[in-house]
Design goal:
By secondary structure, the chain is an alpha+beta fold. The chain is about 35% helix and about 20% strand. The protein contains 11 helices and 11 strands. The protein has helices at about 15-35, 75-85, 110-115, 155-170, 215-235, 260-265, 275, 295-315, 350-360, 365-370, 400-410; strands spanning about 5-10, 45-55, 60-65, 100-105, 140-145, 180-190, 195-205, 250, 270, 320-325, 335-340. The strands form 3 sheets. Strands 1-6-7-8 form a 4-stranded mixed sheet. A 4-stranded mixed sheet has the order 4-3-2-9. A hairpin with a 2-residue loop joins β6 and β7. α1 packs across α2 and α4 (about 155-170) packs across α5 (about 215-235). The chain starts with a strand and ends in a 7-residue tail after the last helix.
Length: about 425
């Protein structure tokens, strides 16, 4: 369709599913921090795959961890919940909830494939530190487009900005009656594939009982929505008519009341907000990210796919790019690389695939090493997306590959 409306959502770190994501990533970070303190070599870093379920009065952790380090998991869980902002006043007290764990070591059948990939088996004189086989089969997607400065789709980027600001005014006590749970949703009208008009904004936020709807509505409009929109429109050089206060529909706490929230209102589960984590529905594939160490290609492969897509667009090879990588368990090299530029590229997509094969190390070990994924702090990524983050210095968001792509294709002019 030439003319259409596309919608994406985001949620704050106090949303039940994001509480679960944050706990899983905090546990991962705790293990990786211990590994770094002990100067372990790459093959000795912890293997972590932890899923979290949060619910009224409790938190359940399941999965697999193989590590030489010790982490006090209940302590990490309680600290994480407290840092989010939950307390007895908000119906989820980190001091008194039950923390239940059911965690086993990583299966040796998987470990043998991760530690000794097919490509190096039986070969002599190979330094094995950075050779990892994929821990499972699967496909991962990356996406980029030129409609925002961060090369992200406008709906998900704006939804993230609104959710982030909502959490910020709560933490800074600008609006001290807000609770940790919150959601945003953005619908944008497109013409000829370009965002031209903000059709709807939905923002729901937990709040203390007794706050009048009018006070909350006006405060959110002034301190969150208007501030974010002004910055977003300026940063992305959008038409001044992108937001029209008389035409854009703004829905703030549509039910009229949002006092009960977080795990008391709804259970939360790691990996249930994968569309929020990625591109808001524009592209997605593979498993979730949180609670998984970077030897899991669900995570590292998705970061590489985004890096490739972003650099394709930044190099002016195309205005839009979707990249799929696929792996097989126990092997280093991807079994397929797929690139779709939606008829916006200036060279054949097959040629771009050849360039990527020549210019990028797509093995799990190569990705981990190049992006320094054992040094990344993953907890901040558990909310507001893993891509297009201007508040974090993420290695997979760099555009250093773009110049190499330009040289490869001898590109001098931008895409027309």
């Amino acid at each position: 369709m030439k003319d259409y409306v596309f919608t994406s959502e985001s949620v704050t770190e106090g949303h039940p599913d994001k509480v679960a994501d944050r706990i899983s990533d905090a546990i991962l970070d705790a293990y990786l921090e211990e590994d770094r303190k002990n100067n372990r070599n790459p093959k000795e870093f912890s293997r972590v795959a932890v899923e979290t379920i949060v619910f009224t009065g409790g938190c359940l952790l399941v999965g697999q961890i193989t590590s030489k380090s010790f982490v006090n998991i209940p302590l990490v869980v309680r600290k994480t919940i407290k840092d989010i902002g939950y307390s007895i006043d908000w119906g989820y007290d980190p001091e008194y909830i039950a923390v239940i764990t059911s965690i086993d070591p990583q299966s040796p059948d998987i470990s043998m494939g991760v530690e000794n990939p097919v490509e190096i088996r039986g070969k002599d004189n190979i330094k094995e530190d950075w050779h990892f086989g994929a821990g499972d089969q699967g496909m991962m997607f990356g996406f980029a487009c030129d409609e925002t400065a961060e090369l992200m789709p406008a709906p998900i980027l704006l939804a993230h900005r609104l959710a982030y600001k909502l959490a910020e005014v709560r933490k800074q006590k600008i609006l001290d009656y807000l609770g940790p749970d919150g959601k945003t949703q953005v619908s944008i009208y497109y013409q000829d594939g370009k965002p031209v008009f903000l059709k709807d904004i939905v923002l729901s936020t937990q709040h203390k009982d007794g706050i009048s709807y009018k006070v909350l509505h006006d405060d959110i409009l002034d301190s969150v929505i208007q501030v974010v929109l002004n910055e977003f429109i300026e940063e992305n050089n959008l038409n001044k008519n992108f937001f029209d206060k008389d035409k854009t529909k703004i829905h703030i706490n549509p039910t009229g009341k949002f006092v009960i929230g977080g795990p008391r209102a709804d259970s939360g589960l790691t990996g249930r907000k994968v569309i929020v984590d990625t591109y808001g529905g524009y592209a997605h594939g593979g498993g979730s990210f949180s609670g998984k160490d970077p030897t899991k290609v669900d995570r590292s492969g998705a970061y590489m796919a985004r890096y490739i897509a972003k650099n394709i667009v930044r190099s002016n090879l195309a205005r839009k790019a979707e990249v799929q990588l696929a792996y097989v368990i126990g092997e280093e090299n991807p079994v397929s690389i797929y690139i779709n530029t939606f008829n916006t590229s200036i060279v054949e997509e097959g040629k771009i695939v050849e360039a990527i094969k020549e210019l990028c190390d797509l093995t799990p070990g190569g990705i981990i090493k190049n992006f320094e994924l054992f040094k990344v702090e993953y907890t901040p990524l558990s909310s507001y997306g893993h891509f297009g983050r201007k508040d974090l210095n993420l290695s997979w968001e760099k555009t250093d590959l773009s110049e190499k792509l330009k040289d490869f294709f001898s590109i001098k002019n931008s895409v027309k």
